[in-house]
Amino acid sequence: MSVAAIKKSPLIEVRNLNLHFGAFHALKNVSVSFEAGQLIGLVGDNGAGKTTLIKVLSGIHKPNSGEVYFDGEKVREFHPKLAIKFGIETLQQSVGLCDNLSIARNFYLGREPIKRWFGIPFLDFKKMREASTKVIRTFGLRDNVSADDLVEMLSGGERQSIKIGRAVEFKNRVVIMDEPTNHLSVREREHVNELAQQMRDQGLLVIYITHDIHQVHKLADRIVIMENGEKVTDVAKHEMTADELEEVIRCGGRVVEKASEVAPS
Ligand SMILES: Nc1ncnc2c1ncn2[C@@H]1O[C@H](COP(=O)(O)OP(=O)(O)OP(=O)(O)O)[C@@H](O)[C@H]1O
Ligand SMILES: [Mg+2]
User: Domains of the chain: which residue ranges?
Assistant: First the structure.
């Protein structure tokens, strides 16, 4: 059998993606692939196209041209159900939880378990409470937090823990973290970063979007840098230091693909 025949498809593969917002060219011929069990740092300045790229992967934006493959299967239709179909959870600091509902209800948002009483369907609060209590404890929330507490009582880091717990419990395969540690304390930031690594260790693909190259360089297996809608760098972590990558970002990506390709001075 040839090597090509036994090679497994990447979990996500993007080929020559272009996306325009009116006259504005937001994604320019982006090609990138991501494997399961990797933690990818997706880095770049404001407006580089990071969020736009992950919105295409979640089915929120439809590209104008190019292809996306999940497990080798070409995506034919871009719609928000794509994320559910392929098991993609996107964690954003500001969205994803309803403040006025309990932790237990948030945990099951959109997939509430039902039990029947004389054929009449009821929400299964016991099940929601039990499963979310387990997650609260596993993911290190304070001991005095209960599954019945409203999410509005939680800190930013605790909210992230609920979303991460949900992603793991529902066996998602891809977790996209868009600036997951913004506005968090140092301790909470460390906790969220540990969870990102745990998810990677459990075999999930974690795409970690940030402006902080030094922070993500410590966690990631690979760093992808975007600039002005283009992918400008894609290297294994050991190939470039955080300082070298920061220089790439500072120079607007106008540096060759890999450190090893830089001509000696
Ligand atoms: N819905 C939209 N309509 C028009 N322009 C958009 C839309 N969404 C994003 N853009 C533009 O596309 C560019 C890329 O935006 P994007 O949100 O992907 O950047 P980003 O890399 O995530 O930046 P940040 O680090 O600030 O979050 C920006 O110039 C932005 O203004
Ligand atoms: Mg963004």
Answer: 10-98+171-261
Q: Calculate the alpha carbon distances from 143 to 127, 140, 146, 147 in Å.
A: 20, 8, 8, 11
For ligand 1, whether the C-beta of 30 sits within 6 Å is: no
Tell me the CATH number for domain 10-98+171-261. 3.40.50.300
Whether 62 lines ligand 1, by a CB cut-off of 6 Å, is: no
pLDDT of amino acid 206: 95
pLDDT in tens, 180-208: 887 777 887 888 899 899 889 989 999 99
Quote the tokens at residue 202.
């459990």
Ligand 1 atom at shortest distance from the alpha carbon of 226 = 21
Q: Around ion ligand 2, which residues have CB less than 5 A away?
A: 51
CB atoms within 10 A of CB 67: 14
Cα 129 to ligand 2 centre (Å): 33
Low-confidence ranges of the chain (pLDDT < 50): 4, 256-265
Question: What average pLDDT does the chain have?
Answer: 86
Q: What pTM does this model have?
A: 0.82
Q: Give the ligand at the shortest distance from the Cα of 45.
A: 1
Q: What is the DSSP letter of 237?
A: G
